[in-house]
Amino acid sequence: MSDVSKKTIQDFWTRNVPGWDVFSKKYSPEDKRFYLEADAHRYRYDDYIPALIDSFAAAGLSVLEIGCGLGTDSRTIAAKGCSVTSLDLSPSNVSFTMKGMKLFGLKGRGVCADAEKLPFKDASFDLVYSFGVLHHTPNTRAAIREIQRVLRPKGRCVVMLYHKGYAYYLLLLRYGWQMLLRRLSSEKLMSRYDSTPLSKLYSKKEIRSLFDGFDRLDFQMTTYGGAQLHPVFKFAYRILRKSRFLMQRFGSFIIIRGSK
Ligand SMILES: C[S@@+](CC[C@H](N)C(=O)[O-])C[C@H]1O[C@@H](n2cnc3c(N)ncnc32)[C@H](O)[C@@H]1O
């Protein structure tokens, strides 16, 4: 377990609102166009997310999103008729999400809390969704245990974590000597590379162990969206996305679907 404090993580994500760097911010967060722009950018970069949400969101489902950020996915899930609870460690991210919900005429509940200590009773939700969050929290295992606890019997989770894919091999190539000589962990290196207080990478074996309380596990490999890449890297990115063989080994994101 990492020794980075929750306060450091909370302050970081409050100062660095997820997705903030990629859209113009021409509009104020009081304006619906602010969220329209944020959402358009998110789904241009990570264009597979709408299909991912389509694959589980059904009217009447009660869904908890952990680490909602600006709330794009919470809004998309709510628009499908789910009853959504959007949780984040950063109070301002919860406010953005709720403001966006209201401007779009959607209903939702916002909760500022820690994924490692969810403030809900056992068996409260049909589905827990979390995208790109639990590798940033010190005790990922505790957060996954909490997901299992708050899910109803036969409930499902859809969780994206960083995978030991190409980013990991690039880190090994570039900084492997520091890992050996200065005993720097891959966690320290990944956090530096990702410019966050804490970013962790997981192998499939480690993920199986983290989710060992779930009955069925399915993995879907994907990678960073290509829209923001330099044309040279875009070519490599297209090859990676087209090849199942390469994606299985080198994909940088792993989407985990688990059933209780
Ligand atoms: C990389 S952002 C992802 C946001 C959103 N899911 C997305 O994909 O745009 C990580 C988010 O997780 C939240 N977060 C980090 N640690 C958390 C924790 N222990 N409990 C709840 N939220 C947490 C941060 O505040 C931040 O909003």
Please outline the helices and strands:
Blueprint: H1 6-15, H2 32-45, H3 49-54, E1 62-66, H4 72-79, E2 83-88, H5 91-103, E3 109-112, E4 125-131, H6 140-150, E5 151-162, H7 166-181, H8 186-194, H9 204-210, E6 216-222, H10 231-242, H11 244-250, E7 253-259
Helix pairs in contact: 7-8, 10-11
How would you characterize this protein structure?
- There is one protein chain.
- The two termini are 25 Å apart.
- With 260 residues, the protein is an alpha/beta fold.
- It is globular, with a radius of gyration of 18 Å.
- The mean pLDDT is 91.
- Helix 7 crosses helix 8 (186-194) and helix 10 (231-242) packs across helix 11.
- It has a single domain, classed as Rossmann fold, CATH 3.40.50.150.
- 43% of the residues lie in helices and 18% in strands.
- Helix 5 links the parallel strand 2 (83-88) and strand 3 (109-112).
- It has a seven-stranded mixed β-sheet with strand order 3-2-1-4-5-7-6.
- It is built from eleven helices and seven strands.
- It has helices at residues 6-15, 32-45, 49-54, 72-79, 91-103, 140-150, 166-181, 186-194, 204-210, 231-242, 244-250, and strands spanning 62-66, 83-88, 109-112, 125-131, 151-162, 216-222, 253-259.
- The protein binds S-adenosylmethionine.
- S-adenosylmethionine binds at residues 9, 13, 18-19, 66-67, 69, 88-90, 93, 114-116, 131-133, 136-137.
